[in-house]
Design a protein that fits this description.
Blueprint: E1 3-8, H1 13-26, E2 29-33, H2 43-49, E3 58-61, H3 64-70, E4 77-80, E5 100-104, H4 113-118, E6 123-124, H5 138-152
Parallel strand pairs: 1-2, 1-5, 2-3, 4-5, 4-6
Helix pairs in contact: 1-2, 1-5
Length: 170
């Protein structure tokens, strides 16, 4: 079982770099759906995750259809949107026999409305107040959702306590 984070046409290299770092630290695969709003060689991208790029599996998809077609079981696709009715915490991610895919939209416009209407039952949201902010930060949102899935899965292959010799509590 593998968890996957997919970014639809990401625009900001810092967000993608931060998400790549989260993926590297959680054994999560990253999917980037083109076109990207930056080059993966961009200096901002490197600053956000340079020393982690070799530790994350990244798959590039030419478009949203190609990404959807790559998922073996759409039952485990979760589309994160502030317009969803169901909270991300209301979903059971404990099935460790299948991969779980979390799809996030573009920072400025989200996912295409027609696509969202096609898969309303797959949509989940992170609760937020009604102060009319456009959305939570993309990299924060990805971290929130992936850690909920990992918590439900009992943090597979992750250390739940990490200590260094000089940091041990006495």
């Amino acid at each position: 079982m593998t968890n996957h984070i997919a970014l639809f046409e990401p625009l900001m290299p810092a967000n993608t770099g931060n998400i790549a770092r989260t993926c590297a630290g959680t054994n999560t695969e990253l999917h980037l759906i083109e076109p990207l709003g930056f080059s993966t060689d961009d200096k901002h991208m490197k600053r956000a995750g340079l020393d982690y790029w070799d530790k994350v599996k990244i798959t590039y998809h030419k478009n949203l259809r190609e990404f959807i077609d790559s998922i073996p079981d759409l039952n485990n696709l979760y589309i994160v949107s502030k317009f969803a009715e169901r909270a991300y915490t209301e979903v059971d991610y404990t099935d460790t026999t299948k991969d779980h895919y979390f799809l996030f939209g573009k920072e400025t416009t989200g996912l295409p409305e027609q696509f969202m209407r096609r898969y309303p039952e797959k949509c989940v949201r992170i609760p937020q107040n009604d102060h009319n902010i456009r959305a939570l930060n993309l990299s924060n949102s990805a971290a929130i959702v992936i850690y909920e899935a990992l918590r439900q899965q009992q943090f597979p292959a992750l250390e739940t306590q990490h200590t260094y010799e000089h940091d041990k509590l006495k």
